[in-house]
Design brief:
It is found in: Membrane. By secondary structure, this protein is mostly helical. The protein has 18 helices and four strands. Strand 2 and strand 3 form a beta hairpin.
Length: 478
């Protein structure tokens, strides 16, 4: 049988595989619950101006409220890194505020249980009135990083996540770590002196460079900390709205609205591409063993590339087709939600380009990895935990880490076009490396399968028993 014929045969067999349709169901469920939401559409629409509200003074001290807002915003954004330090800072600020209030004799007396509150007692106002906003001033961001660095230098240790970034650990600072921190403080002091020469992204890049020097997974990594401040007045809310409006107008003028939405789509859907295809690929080669065809195939004169390569190509094409069709649907739904169905022609090429460039290398690598692990261990079960470990290593942070081993591309926002341009080169390099790695793993699987067959271990039996079993199978088919 020729190679193209074998590829189409494998594609037909995969189309009758129940696991394949379970994969489609999981991908669609993930799409509808994560990307196709009003929150996602909001990132592609113009910001809404604030409505003026009655402004009241809160009894909550500003530093404590600000830190609590930071921790809350970090939790909502799914940033475990931000919540770690912000939570501890929030607790400290709250204790200081409580002690100060007690010493001044200004602590409010709460009514006893079952008693009505005094008539002159006002209900605590919702504060901050207009919520919170992320700090974008380079000087303020630099000041916050300096405070964190000075605190870590005083403590002699830093919070660092270990075991694939999942668990926090207090790492003792070495002399090299302290020297790197002091050097970064000097650099950030320059930012404070001349904030007009920097952008928020450049300041975060300075902290991200320090994170690499410290070994990674520290609170200085990209998106490791989110700096937020209260919006207490209508004037502040309008200033924040004007900043958002200017950012959106810039994206609109540069034609970056649909590219931003396409990146957000790939960020969410790419999580499924990094795990679920392995369930198909890992058990593809084991199918012949379960159907007792493995011995017959091992005895035939079939090239290893034809046998393994055809299955890799068939599975990669079928799964890739699902994601590309989903990219078409996402382009239509996004265009309809933002500008109407008439904008579908503008959104379609953008979503197809990002879907092909960001998702397909992940699908190919996951498929090839499953086949390679099966060839090495002789069991598809081993591929599942190994693939999951690779997925966990690649899933965080939400933006800014695109090293060569990262299976996924995370860019969890439709905005921040400047940040994307900053990382575009690293993203392209990562996708090229992952694509080459996928082909290398498929070739390695073919080579190892041929070695196992030539040594008589293709099915775990001796060559003599393979020959007898193959002959018996051929005799019985006559």
């Amino acid at each position: 049988m020729s190679f193209p014929a074998l590829v189409f045969k494998e594609m037909r067999m995969l189309s009758r595989n129940l696991v394949f349709y379970m994969l489609i169901a999981v991908v669609m469920l993930f799409y509808w619950t994560n990307y196709a939401t009003s929150e996602s559409w909001g990132e592609g629409r113009a910001p809404v101006p604030p409505k003026k509200q009655a402004e009241q003074t809160s009894a909550v001290p500003a530093p404590a409220a600000e830190q609590a807002g930071q921790a809350d915003a970090a939790a909502k954004a799914g940033s475990a890194e931000a919540a770690t330090k912000l939570g501890s800072s929030s607790a400290g600020a709250g204790e200081d505020a409580e002690a100060a209030a007690a010493s001044a004799g200004e602590e409010a007396q709460s009514p006893a249980d079952g008693e009505a509150p005094p008539a002159d007692m006002e209900a605590p106002p919702p504060m901050p009135v207009y919520g919170w906003m992320e700090i974008t001033d380079p000087g303020k961001i630099a000041e916050r990083y300096i405070q964190y660095l000075q605190q870590d230098l005083r403590n002699g240790w830093m919070n660092q996540r270990i075991v694939f970034g999942m668990f926090a650990h207090q790492s003792k600072l070495s002399d090299h770590d302290k020297a790197s921190m002091r050097s970064t403080i000097d650099e950030l002091e320059q930012v404070k002196s001349h904030p007009e020469a920097y952008t928020a992204e450049k300041v975060k890049a300075i902290a991200a460079d320090l994170d690499k020097k410290l070994g990674g997974w520290t609170e200085y990594m990209r998106d490791g900390a989110t700096f937020i401040e209260n919006i207490d007045t209508y004037e502040q809310a309008m200033e924040h709205y004007q900043v958002q409006e200017a950012e959106y107008s810039s994206r609109l003028a540069e034609g970056q609205v649909y590219p931003g939405m396409a990146r957000l789509f790939c960020d969410y859907v790419g999580l499924t591409a990094g795990v679920f295809p392995v369930f198909l690929a890992a058990f593809a080669l084991s199918r012949d063993r379960s159907s007792r065809m493995h011995e017959l195939i091992a005895s035939r004169r079939i090239r290893a590339f034809t046998y393994v390569g055809a299955r890799f190509l068939a599975y990669a094409v079928m799964v890739s087709l699902i994601y590309m069709l989903l990219s078409v649907f996402a382009a239509w739904q996004t265009a309809t939600a933002l500008d109407g169905a008439s904008a579908f022609g503008e959104a379609l090429p953008v979503f197809l380009a990002y879907g092909a460039g960001w998702l397909l290398p992940t699908i190919w690598a996951t498929t090839a990895f499953g086949m390679l692990v099966y060839t090495v261990f002789g069991s598809g079960i081993a591929a599942v935990p190994l693939q999951f470990a690779w997925f966990v290593v690649s899933a965080l942070p939400l933006m800014g880490d695109y090293r060569a081993y990262k299976l996924l591309i995370r860019f969890n926002t439709a905005a921040q076009s400047e940040a994307y341009r900053h990382y575009a080169g690293e993203i392209v390099a990562n996708r090229m490396i992952i694509s080459v790695l996928a082909l290398a793993m498929a070739a390695a699987a073919s080579f190892l399968w041929e070695r196992r067959r030539s040594s008589g271990r293709a099915s775990g039996r001796s060559r003599r028993r393979i020959g007898r079993s193959a002959a018996a199978a051929m005799e019985g088919s006559r």
